[in-house]
Amino acid sequence: MSVLDLARADIRALQPYSSARMEASGGRVMLNANESAWAPPGDHDLACNRYPDPQPAALVDALARLYGVRASQVLVGRGSDEAIDLLVRAFCRAGQDAIAIQPPTFGMYAVSARIQDAAVVTVPLAADFTLDVDALLAAVTPAVKLVFVCTPNNPTGQLVPLADVERLAQALRDRAVLVVDEAYIEFSDAPGAAPLIDRFDNLAVLRTLSKAWALAGVRIGTLLANDEVIALLKRIMAPYPLPRPCVALALEALSEAGQVAARAHIATVRDERERMALALAQVPGVRQVLPSQANFLAVRFDDAGATYQRLLDAGIVVRDVRRYPQLGDALRITLGTPEENDRVLEVLNNLVADGRKRSDGTAMGAQA
């Protein structure tokens, strides 16, 4: 059985749009795409008057080298969100098929499914936020075409062991595509799942330049998968997804100098993660700091709402994750610069000190 047998038959049969840039390359006088013949002001030799290549070879090759796969196993898009949306549209028939997720986890899996009118099968993480492989496999019905696994998980930070990923890929073969979201894997001690792609044609891996590579505003995400899956998704992808300035910035970040800078920032984040986890655990009112292999910490508070507001009043914005299952008392705090992290600790400790002062004042007034 081919992994494409899991995809929608109408998508497999679809005649894709053929863009002007796809139909012609190598010419000197480009008069086939109704573009302007003049570059805009401040173009910086980017030729932004011309449509970009749908999948720029230089960027695809750089990402293939970075992730250790073949160029034919790489699809580059507008962040991981686009790849998630493409997978759902390609594999899930509206009103018939489903995806499986393990909440609490990244919300876009379910959003993309619901936009497509695909059902969402939920298999909650265990109380310690680990993945129950047996429970997940037991919940996969014939309607489930995509199983999303986030590692390190967002918003909790825990890893899914690579052995569990391999077990899932094996058990889901000919049943569903396993989509492993590794947006934060660079901050962890774990190897990625990309080397398993040649063994499992039903395995897809999401990677991004938004986090460790400091390019959130550039919106470059990558799907690594079987050649046939990549070719299928190209059929339904927007004609020109990657703006030329974004491609240029991505290539600069992936240069030798860019990789040195990224590794230095990753090392700082890992050091700060350890320091902040220890420091936050000592702050009165903190119930628990969840173990994390990502660039953030999920922290349980006695009063998460008041803590969120106090941080916001101090100009510090953290993520309120109380709406997520099992996280009704938690905030997610991204690790910033050492100075930014110190400021978080200062505000949290001042919150406790101010609370004590108010308590003492109330008590003294009652005695008087």
Automatic annotation (TrEMBL):
Origin: domain of life: Bacteria
Catalytic activity: L-histidinol phosphate + 2-oxoglutarate = 3-(imidazol-4-yl)-2-oxopropyl phosphate + L-glutamate
Pathway membership: Amino-acid biosynthesis; L-histidine biosynthesis; L-histidine from 5-phospho-alpha-D-ribose 1-diphosphate: step 7/9
Official protein name in the record: Histidinol-phosphate aminotransferase
GO process terms (BP): L-histidine biosynthetic process
Residue numbers bearing the N6-(pyridoxal phosphate)lysine modification: K211
Pfam families: Aminotran_1_2
Origin species: Dyella japonica A8
All copies of domain Aminotransferase class I/classII large, residue ranges: 48-348
Similarity-based family: Belongs to the class-II pyridoxal-phosphate-dependent aminotransferase family. Histidinol-phosphate aminotransferase subfamily.
Any GO molecular function: pyridoxal phosphate binding
Keyword check for Membrane: no
Cross-referenced InterPro entries: Aminotrans_II_pyridoxalP_BS, Aminotransferase_I/II_large, HisP_aminotrans, PyrdxlP-dep_Trfase, PyrdxlP-dep_Trfase_major, PyrdxlP-dep_Trfase_small
Xref: HAMAP family: HisC_aminotrans_2 (MF_01023)
Listed PROSITE patterns: AA_TRANSFER_CLASS_2
Keyword annotations from UniProtKB, A to Z: Amino-acid biosynthesis, Aminotransferase, Histidine biosynthesis, Pyridoxal phosphate, Transferase
Gene name as annotated: hisC
Top class in the EC scheme: transferase
